Amino acid sequence: MTKKIAVLAGDGIGPEIIREALKVLDCLRHEFGVEVETEQGLVGGVAYDAKGHPLPQETLDLVNSADAVLLGAVGGPRWEALDYSVRPERGLLGLRAELNLFANLRPAMLHPQLVEASTLKPDVVSGLDLMIIRELTGGIYFGKPRGVRTLDSGERIGLNTLIYNESEIRRIATVAFDTAMKRNRQLCSVDKANVLECTELWRDVVTEVGKDYPEVILTHMYVDNAAMQLVRAPKQFDVMVTTNMFGDILSDCAAMLTGSIGMLPSASLDEHGKGMYEPIHGSAPDIAGKNLANPLATILSLGMLFRYSFNQGDIAQRIEQAVEKALDSGLRTADIYSEGCQRVSTEEMGNAVVSALRSQGN
Ligand code: IPM
Ligand code: MG
Question: Which residue in 267, 281, 296, 348 has the most C-beta neighbors within 10 A?
């Protein structure tokens, strides 16, 4: 049966990078008989401009009717003055909450061709292959009470709540242990249990879940140390699992180890494998519309979509191999450029991946 992907390009560089991913999808259809249809919808600032809300009802209906969602990026300076409730980012958070996408998989892998693009020494990062699993629908991002209030004294207070219940911790821990079982069977759970009671519970529950996974070596690390270890000796990690906010921060850090945040895809999954796929970089308003952005994170996100939501690991592999081939041929967008390589545009990089895919068909 034909599967449906809801495509939400969003803001900034979103439309440019999504365009390249859609070219790849077209090629998969024509060359390899992949049966997928797409339908585009609005999210983020463009949705606010057109409909007055960053996540309009039409978009919700679309994503609910689709088998998976491919998203570009949201946000930009144009919308920064808006009230929080209608900021572009609320569109993204709304999608995560609405679709119950509690498990965010952010793989940080160093493509050997990009060793020189990392700001870290080659021996620190070469061979890096780590998976960050970020809880995505709870924690301080969603906890209540929240907001900015004025006290009787006239002073304003800003307030957010870090809250997790056991079942939320248990289900993300289970995803993390299952993932570790398919990899090198090492899981590091990151918390701040020395200060935050909420993450003391996190540590307890993760440890409990671990009893069902005797083959996985479980360790715990405080988040400040984890940030340091990520830049000191990142190869010590196989799978990391952590809260929503810590995962947001640590995954940006891990991304830079791989040379550029423009390379990292992500999958956000619900309990049944339905998912939303997006590059972990943002909308990069400074380079939007300039044909400079790196489309590879989005193209690799499409690969994850085939692997996790459509159970078509073979197609995911085709996409990954095509990306490798484009990199092998020395093509680099500005963010991953190093001397001796050929600097290319967003569109040229997309075309190179498509022609590498095509050549697999012959
Ligand atoms: C991410 C982004 C988002 C987040 C923003 C855009 C709301 O930084 O996906 O990492 O904080 O989750
Ligand atoms: Mg982030």
Answer: 296
